[in-house]
Request: fold
Amino acid sequence: MKSFASAALLFLWALGLGVDATAQARNERTATVGMRAVIEQLVLAGTELVPAPATLKTPVVVRVLQTWPHGELLRYDFEWSGLEPGSHDLTKYLVRKDGSSTDGLPALVVEVTSVLAKNVHEPAEIDPQAPARLDGYTTMQWVAGIAWGVGLLAILFVGRRFRWRKPLPPPLPTLADRLRPLVEAVVSGASDTAAKAELERLLVAFWRARLDLGALKAGDAIVRIKGHAEAGALLRQLEAWLHMPTPPTAMDVQALLQPYRSVTAASFEPIVRTEAS
Reply:
């Protein structure tokens, strides 16, 4: 008796689970075009069913998700997706796995709806619209182009102007500039003997180098310089200032210094140092 009662309770419990599972099974018989729907726990007679081969024109695609034995029958979970709106019988797109006939299967009708307007089978063309304006981009291009052009003109003309107006460096002092204060001091009588001797030494050193008299002794070189028309002018005048009891004062200093204006004082320094050594 106890075993019979236990078996009865177990059967009732299993029956309750089956009823609960059936109650919770999905039974989606309506879907829009292209959307998937599921029909679960559907019991059908006959041998096992599988999807029929599909083509590009098949209006409904069916998949068998899972199959279970259900006594002498079979229980199925189907997934389907409609490609054309309208009513469709899913059994038309199933075949027997063993190749036997599917006659006698109850109709499994589903409804495929469309989100398009009636008699419209393709998406309507979008109304043409003017492209959105990129605010400020064109203006920014114009501003950048003008700024670039102004900068180029400034480089070509303003920069050159500044370079043209750049002051020239002052001329280098000449040997005449160096000799002038010494000569003027001798003429005015403000020069002492040492300054006069320095002036004579500078003149002799300059003309020995200019006339290529470096191989001669100093005395012979001085005689040669005095006899030279250009070189001897200032040197002869200097001797008159040094040795005459009454030296002349009315002399053209500019004319005496004229031969020394073409020589810079800096280029004359090595000659003076060589002569001194």
Q: What stands out?
A: The helical segments are 2-24, 137-164, 175-188, 193-210, 218-227, 231-243, 253-257, 265-276.
